[in-house]
Amino acid sequence: MSSPAQHAMSDEQRLQYLVAGISDYAIYMLDPQGHITSWNAGAQRFKGYVEHEILRKHFSRFYTPEDRESGLPERALKQALEQGKFEAEGWRVRKDGSRFWAHVVIDPIYDEHGNLLGYAKITRDVTERRKAEEALRESEQRFRLLVQGVTDYAIYMLSPEGVVTNWNVGAERIKGYSYDEIVGQHFSRFYTDEDRLSGVPARALGTAGQAGRYESEGWRVRKDGTRFWAHVVVDAIRDEQGELLGFAKITRDLTEKKQAAEALDRTQAALFQAQKMESIGQLTGGIAHDFNNLLSVLASGLEVLSMQRQHGSDAKTLDSMRRAIDRGATLTQQLLAFARQQPLQPETRNVNRLITGFESVLRRAGNSSILFEVRLDPMVRNAVIDAARFESALLNLVVNARDAMPDGGRIEIATANATLAEGEVGNLPAGDYVRLTVTDTGTGMDPETVARAFEPFYTTKEVGKGTGLGLSQVYGFIKQSGGEVVIRSRQGEGTTIAIYLPAAGTHDHDYSKADTETVLIVEDEPDLLDVASSLFMSMGYDVMTATSGREAMNALASRDVDILFTDIVMPDGINGIDLAAYTREHYPHVKVMLASGYPQPALKLDRGKLGDFAFVAKPYRLSDLARSLRSVH
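The structure assignment produced for this chain is given below.
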């Protein structure tokens, strides 16, 4: 068996190997006079000396010349001897003369009898840590200078309980307290009595602590008791472990901005009131004028009746009185439309179908010198709308566009989906909308006219040519429907009036589609086109119209069509047979019916070219159409 001495020697050797192998710390022994008696790998790495170069050398060579001259090495040993330990940080010198920042610990070593054997010295290179700390201090210093230099913002810290812990120049300027007056005081003193009683300061810290941030505007109180309107941000400050250290509070004085905004609001309110009074004046004058005329008709009619009542010849007079009363009812409806007080019957409807069903009426509102185009987005969303009022509003816009083009031009009706941001169009909230535009190439409007276009009884037309209620009626109806109307116009370049209606949800059903098919009627004779439209509408079909083969192709490309009913003889080089063949090839689901004033044999077309299309001879009646519809495929 091995002896205890052999075990002790083995432990001692292990300790020596441990110390010798450490490279992150310089660990070595000094004799009582400060000479080096041992050296490890860490010491060699930090200081640059190998063991045989440094043994028996005095440890003071690691100190800077300044420290050696001041006697720092001797004081270090003396303090370690007297106090049992010396610990410090400072510059040390390597063999190559370069310096590093060192953390040093010196401990005295005694034998079992209490005799001093020397000192154990441990040195660590902490240069990088010192650089990081210095960089942090410099950053903090720059930040303090920055914060202290800001005069337009009050920037200061609060403890977790809300006590002010520092204060910048901006805070002193805005709130009136000096650093010595306010540090150590609770921040609630800046709040009004009402806010303190209602617990606003505590809620601010509670919100910031839970959500990380609190932001608000409100009245605050200066040292002298005066109030100012403040924008306040409170941010929670936490350490790396997530513990709350306090709050950073930034306050800005917005009193002047608030006063300016209030002054602007008052000015705008005054302007609105003036415009409203002007509109009311125009409205009152217009009503007085129109109703005076109506009353004149009624009064005169009654006078004539009183003279003719014995002769039984008052039928025409009664008819005049009835027409006058109807005009009065119409005028009342127009005024209600502008006032947004008309009763509406909104339903979820497809705007495209409303337009195509009303297209023949819209076309008749134009004239032969105006090219009428309809461009409808087949993917347009539904909208909740009063169909009859919508058709009336659209007709108003088309009539206005026509009147703006006395020498002819082009009217285009178009639909599209639109996704708007908050406030992008008027005061509409963000969301999905259906956009309807009516564009003309007419005379256009100057900015003053655009600004007043929606006012009741305002018109640029000649006396007797209009009441000035058309656009105001459109405006009132669309606003009442939750939408917006926008005019874009330049003199000499035409006008575009855009209507925005809130899009209905995808789950909202379009009741106009239930069991209803759409027929496209192609006929170049206006009277026949009207008759055919009336016959199909009487059978419950939605009707679209076209006056040429090319126009019909465009309609097929832009809208859903169930039935094509076309004349064979067409004026633009694309006859009805060509159109039917094109439709069968590109839209095989569409049923095709052909019509002609010539009997089939007179058309000189073989059965192969006619194919299996249904044929209706002109003149046709409702029963003829119904019979052909049952057989068409």
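Interim note for the steering committee: The first strand starts at residue 26 and ends at 30. The chain has a mean pLDDT of 79.
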